[in-house]
Amino acid sequence: MGSLPLELFQPLDPDVFIKESHAVVDFIADYYRGIEQYPVRSQAEPGYLSKLLPDTPPIFSEPIDTILEDIKKDIIPGLTHWQSPNFYAYFQANASTAGFLGEMLCSGFNVVGFSWISSPAATELESIVMDWMAKMMKLPSMFLFSGGQGGGGVLHGSTCEAVVCTLAAARDKALTKIGHDSITKLVVYASDQTHFTVQKASKIIGIPPCNFRVIPTTAYSGYGLTADAVRSVMEEDISQEFTPLYLCATVGTTAIGAVDPLLELGQVAKEFGVWFHVDAAYAGSSAVCPEFRRYFDGVELADSISMNPHKWFLTNMDCCCLWLRSPTELVDSLSTNPETLRNKPSDAREVVDYKDWQIALSRRFRAMKLWLVIRRYGMAGLMEHIRSDVGLAKHFEKLPRFDDDDDDDGLKMNIRLLDAVNSSGRAFMTHAIIGGRFVIRFAIGTTLTEIRHVDATWRLIQGIAKGLLLADHS
Ligand SMILES: Cc1ncc(COP(=O)(O)O)c(C=O)c1O
């Protein structure tokens, strides 16, 4: 066995960096050029990869070309192609050139801006970008650093983290008043359309699972949560000596994009003194267009708002914006001050130390990525991005003619149809159960989707449906 010539081991040599990163960029560009040749949903079987890769890691260095070949041969077949123009499943996870370049810069600098002093530009750019983003979405000035009312924002990796942190702040604020032993009395409220992340977060912060209220919605309210329903559940809880803690409203539910009425719900939240969080992970980006901003009316009553630029805002994973009316409450809950991290600006409380606004200590320079996206595309480009996707969705809406066929056969046929479309590899959609009915979702919004893809997928769906019906009747 040979020995490694350590003097040659230079993992950050700029010349090698140029050569190998160019090879990777070329590889990714080829991937995008040919993305439509792959089955949208991976057709791999569970465990496929362990049959292809060696059991043990290599002892010696391998060339980048060999590794890229293996990615093509072994990894790509196991990818579900979220950037395919024929991906209509779950939710959008927009990639873009600016998002990619921002991610590259974030990774290239690889700074860890947990406190201001550990990388001042990372912290300050994040605060500026959070204010920019809030201005683009026309959020009330109380959520901006520059609003002068104590508000501000932070970038997290996911909505789940944002919800955990805001729930922790709400919990600690409440328990300071009613005593720490009363945690079993705290209750969290959401609708049957709220993303499960809220239930998970409430469990993580120690709310007993039986104190998570899932309030039903109906077609009558467009599957939005009604203020009356929330009020009556809260009154019932109070009569049982529980303490309402946190209400989550959603702008754009994951399953069908339902919108909860923020104004009415915010008023109920104020009435009962509960923390009011607005989850706009999925549809929040639409607020940059004036014609969609109305869905945020009432947001001024929120204690916190979150949205994911990594969904529908051309920002490659991961990036979640969280704004707070009173970040001090979050910091009170999450801050620690170990001696090793002490420094003058932090001790003087002159600066933002984002380690106290999140769960982890370490953090990525995500602001660089969002800043690049906003600068490269500008407000005009970003509005165009949202509008063109909404236009495609409206176009699709006009195509199908639905039978209101709600029987068992209809349900089974829909399940078979979805399975057949996804197995064809030519499109990928997912389902939801809404009001007890099985619904096939057609979630338009990948960066590469054009009208021709929507039309072709509709023809595919029709063709497969006809084939299934004919097979049943032959
Ligand atoms: C409305 C809504 N909330 C929360 C989430 C979860 O987001 P994350 O994966 O960033 O935690 C999603 C993801 O689909 C969502 O659509």
TrEMBL record:
Its EC number is 2.6.1.57. It is an enzyme of class 2 (transferase). The keyword Transferase applies. Keywords: Aminotransferase, Transferase. This is Aromatic-L-amino-acid decarboxylase protein.
